[in-house]
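Would you mind writing out the residues of a protein together with its fold in token form for me to study?
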Amino acid sequence: MKLIKHILITTALVSAATLTAAPTLAAEKLSMATSWGGGPPLESWAKGFANTVKDLTAGEVEIEVFTAGTLGSPLKVAETVKNGVAEAGNTFIGYEYGLDKTTVLFAGRPGGLNAEQMIHWLNQGGGLEMWREYRLETAGVVGLPCAYVPREGGMFSKRKVQSIKDFDGLKLRTAGAWSEISADLGVSTVVTPGAEVYQALERGVVDAVEWSALSLNQSSGFHKIAPYIVLPGFHQSTVIIECSFNKEAWDKLSDQNQRLIEAAAYINAHRVYEETGNNDADAYAFFKDAGTEFVVVDDEVLNKVQELTVAWEDKTAAEAGSWFQKVLDHQRAFQARWANAHEYRDSKPSR
């Protein structure tokens, strides 16, 4: 919370001057590797952040955004940034699940903090400080959450999935913790970056896909080849996108521009959250009009997923080491404080 206050105070003191004055220094030009082939993730999450950075720094920092695979693997953006192939990155760090399972505690997972809780935890509950420390120590990058996405929209599926038995034998594109937890339901999983999800479904590599919010599913066109949308999005209670920076490149920036980039991440994150929530409402109506069949899973599925998720958390905490246990305990304590939030605000307990 102290970091957020510092960011906002710095922005208030500096932005008026920087927005009205012409740049006095040559622009610091940074390249950004991403996991995105196009659409809202590239245009809104990555380029939206880059544009905000340019505006707040009055052009002193310019970030050129590259599509997935142009600068390194779209599933290994942090590695690309750490090694200096790109000075900055934009990705879902849950793609690094195979390297470090702690990533999904920050990026979003089944049974975790919902979007509202996660935003509060990051900005008021000490989560942002943990994120920064964790990413610098384990990935060697300066990490900033720079896009908040609401609960994902469930699965688009070529076959109807409603009961527990319907999951058995399902071939699913997914990522992060759900790729492991869902195996206990008999699901066979394939992990692909966002840019390759449609092709996996179209070519029959998978029977179903889960990827991001309803509005992003609309722009991806999944409904053209999958007649069912399976709700709710229990596999991903929220999604947090990271903007990362090479440590050496970050240290070359002035203190003022570092603070303004942090402010840009905060501003962009909230803009994306509001934008996505608004667009999701339109997407829901679009899919209804398009004739997509909405399938709500049985309660036994939700109860089983919750049971499997808690078992996965406890097992992983015992195996993965100090960071996973540290973050999990911190989030569980925060979540417990919100256990009765549905009684006094427009919120429901996360599942």
User: Anything to note?
Assistant: The chain has two domains: 2-151+238-278, 155-236+281-344.
